[in-house]
Predict the 3D structure of the following.
Amino acid sequence: MTEVRPATADDVPSITAIYNHWITETHVSFDAEPQTIEERTAWFSQYAESGRYRVFVAEQNGQLVGVTYSSKFRPKASYETTVETTVVVDPAAVGLGIGRVLLSHLVEALQTEDVHRAVALIALPNQPSVTLHEQLGYRTVGIHDEVGRKFGRYWSVQIMERAFS
């Protein structure tokens, strides 16, 4: 059974470990260097248990297996009601539906907030992530062609968004 709950500061080391896998082993995160727990603690400090910017984690048998969060889309004030959503699952738990449970929970929580659009930026290729987002009401609005360089090559990004109002 997967339990989804708001993240706490005690979750930061596990969140960091999960996220760092995707940084070091794949192209799906455009971060180039693993993050420290201190860096992720500073990142976590911007979140609250309500509002537009939220962090939820998934646990199975007491083990943290994934994280989802909404963050500022852009720093300018007029983008205030648009958030960027992210979902990251422990590599050992990929394919078990945890990403869907997490992102569904985040989308549901955002429906009660002053959010007009959620944007997801998906490094390609990543059909499982594209499919997941489509299943939760996101639609493709464009592709940024070869905008990220990692592992000695360029990667494109699919831009998806979901309307809330």
User: Anything to note?
Assistant: DSSP finds four helices and seven strands in the chain.
